[in-house]
Amino acid sequence: MIENISQQDSASELISQYHKKLSESGFSGDIDNSYATRLVTSTDNSIYQQVPQAVIFPKSNRDVQVALELAQQDPFLSLTFGPRGGGTGTNGQSLTPGIVIDLSRYMREILEINEKEGWVRVQAGVIKDQLNDFLKPYGFFFSPDLSTSNRATIGGMINTDASGQGSLVYGKTSDHILGLKTYLIDGTELNTSKLPIEKAELLAQQNSRTSDIYAHVIEACRSNRTLILEKFPRLNRFLTGYDLENVFDESLSTFDLSRIVAGSEGSLAIVTEAKLNLTKIQPYKTLINIKYDSFESALRNSPFLVSANATSVETVDSKVLGLAREDIIWHSVSDLITDVPGYDMQGLNMVEFNGESTQEINSKVENLCNRLDTLIANKEAGVIGYQLIDSKEDILKIYAMRKKSVGLLGNVKGKRKPIAFAEDTAVPPENLADFIMEFRDLLDSYKLDYGMFGHVDAGVLHVRPALDMFDPEQEQLLRSISDKVVALTAKYRGLMWGEHGKGYRSEYGPEFFGEQLFSELRKIKSLFDKNNRLNPGKICTPIDSNDQLVSVDGQKRTWLDREIPVQVQTSYEPPLSCNGNGLCFNYDENSPMCPSYKVTKDRRHSPKGRAGLFKEWLRLQSNKGVDLVSVEKRLINGENTVTWWERFLNNRNKDEYDFSHEVKASMDECLACKACTTACPIKVDVPTFRAKFLNFYYSRYNRPIKDYLVANIERLLPVISKFPNLSNLVQNNRISSYLLEKLIGYVDSPLLSKVQLHKLVPKEYHYSDEVFNRLSAEEKLRAIFIVQDPFTSFYEAELVSDFIQLIRKLGYYPLLLPFKPNGKPQHVKGLLKQFKSTAANASEFLNKISENGRPLVGLDASLVMCYRDEYKDILQESRGEFNVLLAHEWLATIDIPSIDTLSPSKFKLLSHCTETTSMPESKRVWKSIFTKFNSNLDTPSTGCCGMAGTYGHELQNQENTRALYDASWRSHIEETKDEAILATGFSCRCQVKRFSGNKPRHPIQILNSLLD
After folding, report:
1. Is 160 helix (H, G, I), strand (E, B) or coil?
2. Scanning 496, 643, 677, 814, which has its CA 20 to 30 A from the CA of 849?
3. How far does CA 277 lie from the centroid of its chain?
4. Of 242, 276, 238, 237, residue with least CA distance to 261
5. How many helices (H) and strands (E) does the chain have?
């Protein structure tokens, strides 16, 4: 059985003292040195791993200052710090062995906007898309773009001087900084902005901590100006960290110290606020998707496209396109990137035009299209076709696909995964094609696969070679390839880091800067941070320091992963495949993934966090000699050698540290909504490995009573539903509600249907072998088998009745199958032995029914998807081939004539999050069905309603469940008439009823009523 993991990589006694003193010093944020939080913060979107000593989450500028001032006191002078934002860096920029200052949890306020002057002031933790959503009503946007914009923070963008699509027009983050508020290592506040050189020199003459910085930087950048201009490449993606060139304007009449801080990766100061200039939104936009016969053709055609005065030119290769086709996101763009008959599309360039008027855009677009038509007619430049897109909504879909390509590359089959380490090289655009051809030759010489995408207009291409980092020999290739790419970029007068910062590639800094200029960087570092305490090892070290820079040979995530036995790696592959992309940190409240992170802002409560914790738990259990694969099989077969009494004693000793408790605390916050099984590029599937973990956990510890209540609800319902009035009375009185809340921990349980289902459905529609055999041949051909679920059958019997009526009205013969427990509640609680038995029984029955060759249809997405996913996982081949459709899937297969005689109606459908993510076409299908009923169906994007099965009924989740409802669903409910609101999920309908007082109807009920 599993072991107690009592040993931990604990924080030092000095850290504990610092935390105690920090709490006493007025620090108002969170202080966390738990192993779980430190472990989750030990990785970013890179291949590296560094476990910090602690993580602090400041709530204000003063908190940051207090934390740094305290560290200036003895005995804390040896402590080091590193700031962290969204954790989306691809080169380990935010990883530190010291104390992480995480500004992303609380410092998310947009402080001030000045429409007249076109600027905004924000805290460092504000997310890029959050800012642009705020600015949109004002007609502005913050223009530097990046693929991780829905989770990357402004502070992180400043620290890496981020840029992306459109940088040829919009520039980099540093081009938009009007001022910064930062704190030096001793807590000194430093406010920087562009100043007349005379004023900057006056500041340099003062006697203060900051005047020395001004004096040295002015002198160093002025006296080395010629060398700087000679050494730094003339690129749109100019050399950053620290930007010695652009502290001055071309005439040397202004000076901006912010340029030194931007791109410094937190090695000089902690950025807490930024004043940013804004760009006006141009109202008109057109995108041209240009298709090529090869990726080389796409690259070599890019200067031709740049000359068309486009805002941006983006590219993706066939590898990325192929992965997108296999992902949920392809459903949204398939009609926007159609294949060209007779050709194999191997490359795609996306050319965007923006303008103040249609005339301005049309002239550019028409000119380019005419030139493209000529190329196609003459079969030149490899152009095989193109598509024009004017709809802003469709353009956003294309860019969502392009942005997701970063994560999609991590989902390739096999052990070799495309990884980021030399993936943001920048060369002059006119040299890009030749550079990439040599780059490809280099990778081909090692027989490596790779994916490519990027910003061809700026000469930046993201190249991600596929390596198996579990293999030490392949890890060594990373060093060899990195060294050769450095030489290759130098050959083409380019940069190793055109977009994603240096991080663990800082060791290559001296080669690019040269000895003299790199020494100037070190002198600047000394002035800001002479003892190397801010993000040590990044960019450079102080001039008199013997400390080393971090290296591409630094610790990788796979160093620890290799300790996990291969059999365990194979059995629990999804969480081990998480590459840190962090799409689960998506800021958008109307995105289904991940509700628990959205409401807590705690990264332990995200798919990435849970995957990392579970992976570490697998390693630690394996190091204890536990054969987890064998143990899981024994537990599912009911063989637990730990007695109830031993589990009872283990519960009594819960004060004794066990890392399993930290993992379970993370799993407890999961709503099991399954959004991550499809929305995550890697498909980490938290609900599946969560259920397996709980199965392990409760083999050592006793379960709470509520788990058994939930697990057996499907067996209890057929009994108690025979007496609905009595059952509801017993459940719904104040005494029972009090006892349920205090003893079980459940609130607001739904009431049973007052009229039982068997009384609502005529006998001839209740399935039995005898009933089916009595049907005529024609009736059998039109038979539809309705698969019952515990929610609709016992709590919403009228819905099932309506469905039966609708089936009859559409000319089919409904047959209500006997109720068979589905087992979903057992799976959610990790009772896998019981779930396997339930799944086997249901599968045997449903396979028998499916032999009749007629559709099986269910009404609730979470239960239907359980048949498809969880059954397959637990039963493997013995599951059989039966398939249960959802109502809309079945309706889409039949011929429904348009009914123009019906009065036009309008409804709003709020979809179940499992349905939205698992079946991305479901909204379109429902809209199509309602159109045939002469009805308009609005299908807005929504996040999770906050109920998710039993999650919303559990007492400890009440604050979170309400917050989730308020964030995404409440506004839709309040702005729409009650009778027009529809919801496909039973739990969603219950949640709306609980908080609004009115219960939405299922779309099936509306369709049935329309045919009355």
Report:
1. helix
2. 677
3. 28
4. 242
5. 49, 27
388 half-sphere exposure, CB direction, 13 A CA radius: 14
Spatial contact of 1 and 647, defined as CB atoms under 8 Å apart = no
Which of 218, 193, 192 has its CA nearest to residue 204? 218
Task: Give yes or no for a contact between 243 and 161, defined as CB atoms under 8 angstroms apart.
Answer: yes
Sign of torsion over alpha carbons 531, 536, 537, 540? negative
Type and span of the H or E element at 719: helix 713-720
Burial class of residue 162, CB neighbours in 10 A (0-12, 13-18, 19+): buried
- Is residue 237 scored above 60 in pLDDT? no
The dihedral region occupied by 532, where left means phi > 0, alpha psi between -120 and 50, and beta the remainder, is: left
Question: What is the per-residue DSSP string for 696-710?
Answer: HHTTTSPPPHHHHHH
Peptide linkage before 18 cis (omega within 30 of 0): no
Place of tokens 């709470």: 704
How many angstroms separate the Cα of 42 from the Cα of each of 89, 94, 612?
12, 9, 10
Q: How far apart are CA 951 and CA 775, in angstroms?
A: 43
Position with higher pLDDT, 819 vs 641: 819
Q: For residue 546, give both structure tokens.
A: 């013997």
DSSP state of 981: E
| Pair of tokens at residue 326 | 């296999």
**Contacts for 122 with CB less than 8 Å, ≥ 6 apart:** 109, 110, 111, 131, 154, 273, 274, 276
Whole-angstrom Cα distance, residue 673 to residue 458? 40
pLDDT digits (tens, 9 = 90+) for 419-446: 888 888 888 888 888 888 899 899 999 9
Q: How many CB atoms lie under 10 A from the CB of residue 581?
A: 26
Q: Give the span between the Cα atoms of 775 and 738, in whole angstroms.
A: 51
User: Per residue in 389-400, pLDDT tens?
Assistant: 999 889 988 888
Q: What is the DSSP letter of 463?
A: E
Provide the 3-class DSSP secondary structure of residue 386. Answer: strand
Q: Which of 274, 377, 401, 384 is nearest to 325 (CA)?
A: 401
> Quick one: which of 579, 231, 250 has its CA closest to 412?
579
End-to-end CA distance of the chain: 60
What is the C-alpha separation between 932 and 271, in angstroms, rounded?
Answer: 56
Closest CA to 664 of 696, 623, 627, 632: 696
3-state secondary structure of 894: coil
Got the DSSP string for 725-756?
HHHHHHHHSHHHHHHIIIII-B-SPPPPPSS-
Nearest to 816 by CA among 762, 776, 866, 770: 762
Q: What is the pLDDT of residue 236?
A: 62
Provide mean pLDDT across the span 841-859. Answer: 96
Mean pLDDT of 715-741: 87
Two tokens, residue 258: 């912010």
Alpha-carbon radius of gyration of the chain: 30
Separation between Cα atoms, residue 263 and residue 274, nearest integer Å? 14
Q: Rounded to 5 degrees, what angle do the CA atoms 707, 799, 860 make?
A: 45
Closest CA to 602 of 146, 615, 594: 594
What's the Cα-to-Cα distance from 795 to each of 661, 804, 1003, rounded to whole Å? 35, 16, 17
**For 522-577, what is each residue's pLDDT tens digit?**
999 999 999 999 999 999 999 999 999 999 999 999 999 999 999 999 999 889 98
CA-closest candidate to residue 877, choices 843, 853, 902:
843
Note the pTM of the prediction, 2 decimals.
0.91
Rounded to whole angstroms, the Cα distance separating 998 from 982 reads 11
Mean pLDDT of the chain: 91
Those residues with Cβ within 8 angstroms of residue 608's Cβ, 6 or more apart along the chain or in another chain: 40, 578, 580, 581, 582, 584, 585, 684
Which residue in the block uniquely carries the two structure tokens 């009503």?
137
User: Which of 698, 572, 723, 578 has its CA nearest to residue 646?
Assistant: 698
